[in-house]
Amino acid sequence: MRVALCATCLVDQFFPEVGEATVKVLRHLGVDVSFPEAQTCCGQIGFNGGYRKEAAEIARHFVETFEPYDHIVAPSGSCSSMIKVYYPELFADNPRMLERAIAVGEKTHELSEFIVNVLGVTEIGGASTGLVTYHDACHLLRELGISEEPRTLIQNTHGVELEEMPKSDDCCGFGGLFSVKFPEISTAILNDKISNIEKTGASTLIANDCGCLMHMRGALRRQGSSVRPKHIAEFLAEGLD
Amino acid sequence: MPDVKTSQFKSASVKALADSNIQRALGAPFAHFVDGRKSAIDADFTEESWESMRDRAAATKAHTIERLDYYLDLLDKNVRRNGGHVHFANDAAHANQIVLDIAREHDVKTVIKSKSMVSEEMGINAVLEKNGIVPVETDLGEYIIQLAKETPFHLIAPAVHKTKGQVSDLFEKFLDSAPTDDIEKLCIIARDVLRDNFAKADMGISGANFIVAETGTVVLVTNEGNGRMTTSAPRVHVAISGMEKLLPSIEDVSLFLRLLARSATGQRITSYNSFISGPRASTDEDGPEEFHLILVDNGRLNLLKDETLREALSCIRCGACLNHCPVYRKVGGHAYGWVYPGPIGAIVSPMLTGLKQGKDLPYASTLCGSCRDVCPVKIDLPKLLLDLRHKVVKSGAGAMPERLGIRQWHDTMKTRKKLEGKARLGRMLQGLVARKGFITRLPLPVVSGWTKSRDFPALAPRSFAEIWRDDLSGGDRS
Q1: Are strands B236-242 and B210-212 parallel, antiparallel or unpaired?
Q2: A1 pLDDT exceeds 90?
Q3: B460/A16 Cβ within 8 A
């Protein structure tokens, strides 16, 4: 089984520790993971901005880079949904690329979904401590329908208690370009999310997407909160050899 | 047509965020909408059965819209057969003229209205007033905003942003009533005024929730009973509707009524469901002597021509997408700058009033997908918003700084080599602004808004690719 890690551009440039944790978890589970070094970005930034021509070029590069592999694993629901759900939209007028993009989409998995549904593993074997809470990233939840898999993995981690926040499936207000274009609205949505996180009394906030985490971390840090945001890969890697 | 202020979304939204009345209105009442919808659905349906109802409704709407000319023709025949008149209006001005002509023909002095979003598109009240005819809104919320000279804040709760104090002030000013904070008293004050108008009005204008082609029936749904009064008491009934409100058969209606009531207000069934098929028959004891149906285009046929965006014509105006939208829930209805707010408004308003001035609206979404999940006719709103963003860019209306940003991104992400080169440069430059791995103030145009409330992460000292190469690959380089 040839498994390629799609690190995502955010992890690659801003949060490499999430990539390291992803590799650690996958290797712990016996997966022979490769990192195709030509990878850059899935193209979502351009696509969501309305720049489809530019996005299609970046997406084509993605398809070419990843199509030799049996599985593509990304520590992100958002990038996975771009590839699985929106590449067909992006290449709708290009039948040859469409076929290749759909094939790549079918073998693309978000990390927690890959672990639970492809590997059939529901307990990683790591250990952590304390009360944690989980944020449902919008694209992971509503584009890919993934909500049970990450919770299963969290709950099966030794020494941890999951305390659900109110409205865990409410958006954090990030929305990529949205957070730049409409910072005031984005912040207002974010503040509700932060207050729901704080209500749990959890010391750790877990999410599967670095976009949401970057956004929530930005406010938690600014507001001097003691809650530590963690990507699920980092959380799952804790206590592994 | 009311002024189009879609270009002011950004400034209007900032204003709304600072308005404590609006923020209060967007809290509890909307939580009630959201919870009410969910419990009403859960009480009667499994997830599968609700999904299959949405599927059927979406298919029925798509079928009807694909064959709109056929069904409009059928409707036209059947309304005439029932003794009614059918008018086709190209735009708002045309529709207003038709209403005025009918009013003049019948020497109309007072018009009572039940809620109609299309009439908001037309700005009919201002036109009637200018021509010496008194329009009176009879839906309580609409009546309140008519007094306040505002547009609806929400598709089905037009005055939800008004406090009881504000309503009392309006009634005091316009109706000479004593101030009160008792909601029941306020309702009674309004009811007394509206009752008088029901009795004396010469013409009733209604909207249409659905129009049945095979029977020529207008279906009207209200909770206050004002729709029934409006369409039965005056001598003339004029129903105004967008052309897309058609359903093929009377058997389709029950499905849509079930979906609408639960999605809109969390009810199993709306209090008053009226089926109006033409004027009073010779055997009827009462009812209007004349019945007119005005079918309004006002940009809808343009929307119909667009293979992707025509899906928006399936909308049954329940408001669920507004209630579940994180953006609407922060900025409310007026920020969207025209008649239709929220995710559906962000698509329909620019398409009906001009993409250039409404170019910010399709971007006023986090693309969280909640709207799509609750839409009773399964409109794929995020997909349509994305399509409309593409149209903004294709039309050359994209904002300059964004264009430059995307050009940079595109150039950076073309190859790994370019990405690494740019990242190296970025790491050097960020030394000017980054402290302890974060940037707390970004003194650059466009992006500076981010760091007003949030710390932005600095680029990591080493990219993951470098870490892989140096520490993790173990010689496995691909």
Answers
A1: unpaired
A2: no
A3: yes
Contact A185 B413 (CB under 8 A): no
pLDDT in tens, B54-71: 999 999 999 999 999 999
Q: For B195, what's the count of Cα atoms within 13 Å in the CB-facing half-sphere?
A: 6
Query: Is the pTM here over 0.90, yes or no?
Result: yes
Q: Which residues pair with B221 in a beta bridge?
A: B273
Contacts of A131 (CB under 8 A, 6+ apart): A161, A163, A200, A201, A202, A203, A204
- Nearby residues of B404 by Cβ (< 8 Å), 6 or more positions away: none
Query: Could you tell me if B390 and B359 are in contact, meaning their C-beta atoms sit under 8 angstroms apart?
Result: no
d(Cα B118, Cα B87) in Å, to the nearest integer?
14
Q: Is A68 exposed, middle or buried (0-12, 13-18, 19+ CB in 10 A)?
A: exposed
What is d(CA B37, CA B34) in angstroms, rounded to the nearest whole number?
A: 5
As annotated, the residues of chain B forming the CATH 3.40.50.10420 domain(s) are 67-298
The whole-angstrom separation of Cα A119 and Cα A122 is 9
Q: Do B467 and A20 count as a contact with CB atoms less than 8 A apart?
A: yes
Question: What pLDDT was estimated at residue B476?
Answer: 67
Question: Chain B contact for A48, CB < 8 A?
Answer: yes
Name the band, by pLDDT with cuts 50, 70 and 90, for residue B477. low
What confidence category does residue B401 fall into, taking pLDDT thresholds of 50, 70 and 90? confident
Class (C level, CATH) for A122-237? alpha beta
Q: What are the pLDDT digits (tens) for B86-145?
A: 999 999 999 999 999 999 999 999 999 999 999 999 999 999 999 999 999 999 999 999
Q: Where are the domains of chain A?
A: 3-117, 122-237
Give the Cα separation of B113 and B119 in Å (integer). Answer: 9
Are B457 and A14 in contact (CB < 8 Å)? yes
B4: tokens are 């189009």
Question: Which of residues 370 through 399 in chain B touch A, CB cutoff 8 A?
Answer: 370, 372-373, 383, 386, 389-394, 398
- Asked if the B67-298 domain carries CATH number 3.40.50.2300, the reply is no
Q: What is the CA radius of gyration of chain B?
A: 26
Nearest-CA neighbor of B383 among B374, B393, B371, B392?
A: B371
What is the distance between the terminal CA atoms of chain A, rounded to a whole angstrom? 23
Residue of A nearest to B459 (CA): A14
Q: What is the CA radius of gyration of chain A?
A: 17
B403 CB-near residues (< 8 Å, 6+ apart): none
Query: Chain B neighbours among A 120-179 (CB < 8 Å)?
Result: 138-139, 141-143, 170-171, 173-179
Q: Which of A67, A182, A214, A215 should we substitute to test contact with B (largest number of B Cβ atoms within 10 Å)?
A: A182
| Contacts with B, A 196-215, CB within 8 Å | 214-215
List A109's β-bridge partners, or say none: A73
Q: Does B415 touch chain A (CB under 8 A)?
A: yes
